[in-house]
Amino acid sequence: MDRRRGAAILFVAPFLLCFVAVTIVPLAYAAALSLFTEKASGLGFGPAETVFAGVDNYVRALSDPAFRGGFLIIAAYCLVYLPLMVGGALVLALLLDSAAAKMKRLLQLALFLPHAVPGLIAAIIWVYLYTPGLSPIVALLEWDFLASDHVLLSVVNIATWEWIGYNVIIFYAALQAVPREILEAATVDGARGLRLAFAIKVPMIRAAVVMAGLFTVIGAIQLFTEPKIINRAASTVSSSWTPNMYALTAAFERHDYGLAAAASMLIALLGAVLSFAVTRATARRSSR
């Protein structure tokens, strides 16, 4: 038993060390930094002093309309992005898993290939395609992708292009694990086409769908790369358009590191709460 325990610790130790180094330590440092602020001494001519601020930085972040507005944008983004991403990936995976699908390997590669492109490069490519005077698509469709009414959909399009192939692979792998005898029995009972897909296959991979939905929401909360690149090309995306962009602006443009750390901790807390809520709800539903 001791040898098994030692072997288990040996295998788990590298992960724990990396997890502590890249997750726990930065979170602890950000939490400590969020409790302090810098104030100029005297008439403002002396060096700034770091003073304990308590929860003042959190209050400042939550009372700032720009920070709260970023979460409203994330909510609108999720309303469009989540069903498009999860629903679209699920439909594509079901099509790949169907008996009528041809060249499955080639289709999997084609769908996954955009995910292999770094997010920064993908955003730059799409900004060129969105820019009037540079893009043939804008002239052809006569549509301003960077207008204030359209820019959210443009960001959703970039993220969907990047990530839908990743989710297709997850769902397709889950579909391949569905016992064939269950599908054969359903077919014998008369299940065909859409009924077989949505009444038999989808419930069998519910865990994978929930996991993909959870990761999609967490990724949406951390939305940064796509709007940051668009911010360089259009004024419709401000420097505090999302909560992550707000934290970056507070840290590196306003040099208010306490406020930036507090905003980051609030973003992390929201992600943790959503993860816990979805996991708890899924566990309760599975136990019924």
UniProtKB/TrEMBL annotation:
Recorded topology in the membrane: Multi-pass membrane protein
SUPFAM superfamilies (UniProt xref): MetI-like
One Gene Ontology biological process: transmembrane transport
Alphabetical UniProt keywords: Cell membrane, Membrane, Transmembrane, Transmembrane helix, Transport
GO CC list: plasma membrane
Keyword Protease applies: no
Source domain of life: Bacteria
Main localisation: membrane
Record localization: Cell membrane
Database matches in InterPro entries: MetI-like, MetI-like_sf, UgpAE/MalFG_permease
Residue ranges of domain ABC transmembrane type-1 in the record: 75-278
Residue ranges crossing the lipid bilayer per the database entry: 71-95, 107-131, 151-175, 204-224, 257-278
Gene3D superfamilies named among the record's database cross-references: MetI-like
Record's keyword annotation contains Nucleotide-binding: no
Pfam families in UniProt: BPD_transp_1
Family affiliation: Belongs to the binding-protein-dependent transport system permease family.
Protein name: Sugar ABC transporter permease
Source organism of this protein record: Bailinhaonella thermotolerans
